[in-house]
Design goal:
Blueprint: E1 5-16, E2 19-30, E3 34-39, H1 45-52, E4 59-64, E5 67-68, E6 79-82, H2 94-104, H3 109-118, H4 134-146, E7 152-156, H5 164-179, E8 183-188, H6 191-197, E9 200-205, E10 208-214, H7 215-224, E11 228-231, H8 235-244, E12 248-253, E13 256-260, H9 264-274, E14 280-283, H10 288-302
Parallel strand pairs: 3-8, 3-9, 6-7, 7-8
Antiparallel strand pairs: 1-2, 1-4, 4-5, 9-10, 11-13, 11-14, 12-13
The structure holds adenosine-5'-triphosphate (ATP).
Length: 303
């Protein structure tokens, strides 16, 4: 059922030596939703995913449909993971490799063929794993993750290194999986891509979750942080005006400046009323990037 909680990760923590790389991370994945897991390099996304999947030891627990993964007899029917292409012997041919994995979980051969078709790899079925392109390897990894028809999909940086065509395919594919009722977790540092893909965003900064919100809320909050870029011949006069009305103007060279705290309509109206000339002003669309940079900045200030 859409919105039903399928995965509940609580209090995930992990240290390497005396370095605490994850600190009390909690995540909830819901049926019918793509959750975007974003964070800078080294923030701890991969470590979180490995803990969730039981591939790494640490503190905390993750329940899949109410139970830890190890209590499920066939974990592949609960969660499918794509952790960077397809893992297997490089000399094995794709279809044979998938059939071998399928046999281990009592999945019939026909499912391998239908999944190869689903991910658009029917023509590559006889290629050796070593001969697959990066995009093909990602698709093959997805086919492998889907063998047990799990209701949960977890993908670590699946868009890494893909060309725009493959990224688009991936986006549409994952949206399709969510539309079928699966809960999908995707980690990425490609914020523009995530904005188009995710229903919900979890932001990780230095091992801690600093935001977990629906994308609609993220974009609303980003709108509040929107930056206006402008050009004006008398920046000191404009700066005074902006400050008087609760905004902040920062010169960026020449006659250009950025303004935060006021939107373009307000700035334009105030300038007109005060007789301060403006050559042009521009306000970008609210983006996940604005939101992300905002929360990451606040986090660095307080810690
Ligand atoms: N086996 C390990 N031994 C020591 N430190 C580790 C190990 N694995 C990860 N780390 C450290 O833990 C931190 C989190 O790493 P992790 O790979 O989870 O981050 P990430 O968010 O996935 O980053 P990226 O986007 O670069 O993959 C980093 O500082 C990393 O150096």
């Amino acid at each position: 059922m859409k919105g039903e909680v399928l995965v509940e990760a609580r209090g995930l923590s992990r240290s390497f030596g005396n370095k605490r790389v994850l600190d009390d991370v909690s995540l909830t994945l819901r049926a019918g939703e793509v959750t975007g897991f974003v964070g800078a390099n080294g923030a701890g996304k991969t470590t979180t995913i490995q803990l969730m999947l039981g591939l790494l030891r640490g503190e905390g627990q993750t329940h899949y449909l109410g139970r830890p993964l190890h209590e499920w007899g066939a974990p592949g029917t609960v969660v499918g993971a794509v952790l960077g292409g397809v893992a297997g012997h490089s000399a094995h041919r794709l279809r044979a490799h998938l059939r071998m994995v399928a046999a281990g979980s009592a999945v019939p051969d026909e499912r391998v063929d239908s999944l190869l078709e689903t991910v658009g790899l029917t023509d590559a079925a006889r290629r050796k794993l070593a001969e697959l392109s990066l995009g093909m390897a990602q698709r093959a990894g997805i086919a492998q993750a889907l063998l047990g028809d799990p209701p949960v999909l977890v993908l670590d940086e699946p868009a890494n290194g893909l060309d725009p065509h493959s990224i688009r395919w991936l986006r549409e594919f994952l949206r399709g999986q969510a539309a079928q009722g699966k809960a999908v977790l995707v980690s990425s540092h490609l914020l523009g891509e995530m904005e188009q893909l995710a229903d919900r965003v979890v932001v990780l900064t230095r091992g801690r979750v600093v935001a977990a919100e629906p994308m609609t809320e993220v974009l609303k909050r980003a709108a509040d942080r929107r930056i206006v870029t402008l050009e004006a011949p008398d920046l000191p006069a404009l700066a005074k005006l902006v400050t008087e009305h609760g905004g902040h103007l920062a010169p960026v060279g020449g006659q250009s400046a950025t303004v935060t705290g006021l939107d373009r309509v307000r700035i334009g109206t105030l300038a007109l009323q005060a007789g301060v000339p403006l050559y042009w002003l521009h306000e970008g669309n609210p983006s996940l990037e604005d939101f992300y940079l905002g929360v990451a900045q606040e986090e660095f200030k307080i810690s």
